[in-house]
Design a protein that fits this description.
- By secondary structure, this protein is α/β, with parallel strands linked by helices.
- The chain has a single domain, classed as P-loop containing nucleotide triphosphate hydrolases (Rossmann fold, 3-Layer(aba) Sandwich), CATH 3.40.50.300.
- The chain has helices spanning about 35-45, 50-60, 60-75, 80-90, 105-110, 125-140, 150-170, 175-190, 205-215, 230-240, 245-260; strands spanning about 25, 50, 95, 115-120, 200.
- It has a five-stranded parallel beta sheet, sandwiched between helices.
- Helix 3 (about 60-75) packs parallel to helix 7 (about 150-170).
- It is globular and about 45 Å long.
């Protein structure tokens, strides 16, 4: 682990509290531009925008509280109230990606003044992208290798959280019902959030609609374009030593060669 635990990021969120207001809740599932949107929000001043990487890489102990939240909501074990959200996310002004996307009603209730962005994309493109990245990576989760000092118990809770996120997102199987689950998730968001406080948005639209909705100035720079298929596998091989599946390897090598030429 090069860039999180090795840097001493070992914060017990149970000892924390809210220090900044929650201002933006993004509801999209993985591969709906969550990494690009995180970078965009941070560029707009929403520092500490939470993302799956926040728990998986940057402060792995967050997985402990996320698992508590899953047990409370989905297994009926214990409770997870606003005070708990303030502890877990109190340093953040925005959230995007899972695990947060699996707790939209709870987050909207806890932070009613936050604006809500439903980041989405064409369902067929999303399904293909997810199949060629996350599905392939999860099939190799037992082969994860990390560099630096990362205790076994942290590896275990990260694996437990990643597994829980996936099983909760697609309880009837991704291959069989992934597209249906995608539509159901977005419809749940529409039913949960007031229309006047919801932006349905694709990162392909760039800065303009996002900044208009958030009532902030449009930056004079390109919108972030991050975590395409090639860069996803570059990250996974660098951080975890995962072997790139053959179809992804071919595309990765082609895109890397092209980017080097350019």
């Amino acid at each position: 682990m090069e860039d999180s635990f090795a840097k001493g990021t070992d914060i017990d969120r149970r000892t924390c509290t809210r220090v900044v207001p929650m201002r933006v809740i993004c509801t999209g599932l993985p591969k709906t531009g969550t990494t690009s949107l995180r970078a965009a929000l941070q560029r707009l001043g929403y520092e500490q925008t939470y993302h799956m990487e926040s728990a998986a890489y940057e402060n792995i102990r967050d997985c402990e509280m996320w698992l508590d939240a899953f047990r409370a909501k989905y297994d009926g074990i214990g409770t997870f109230e606003k005070e708990d959200w303030d502890k877990l996310l109190g340093h953040c002004q925005a959230v995007t990606d899972v695990p947060a996307a699996l707790f939209i009603p709870e987050l909207v209730k806890a932070y009613p003044d936050a604006k809500v962005v439903m980041n989405t994309r064409d369902v067929d493109a999303w399904y293909t992208s997810t199949t060629n990245t996350i599905v392939a990576a999860l099939s190799n989760i037992d082969n994860v290798k990390t560099g630096g000092f990362e205790p076994d118990h942290l590896k275990a809770i990260r694996k437990e959280l990643l597994t829980k996120v996936w099983q909760t997102s697609f309880p009837d199987g991704f291959k069989e019902t992934g597209k249906e689950a995608f539509h159901k998730h977005n419809e749940m968001v529409r039913q949960t959030v007031r229309k006047d406080n919801l932006l349905e948005y694709s990162v392909k639209e760039g800065w303009e609609p996002l900044c208009k909705f958030l009532e902030v100035p449009v930056p004079d720079e390109p919108f972030p374009r991050l975590n395409d298929r090639a860069s996803y596998w570059q990250k996974m091989t660098k951080k975890f030593g995962l072997k790139i599946p053959e179809p992804q390897k071919i595309e990765f090598e082609q895109q890397t060669t092209t980017s080097c030429v350019v």
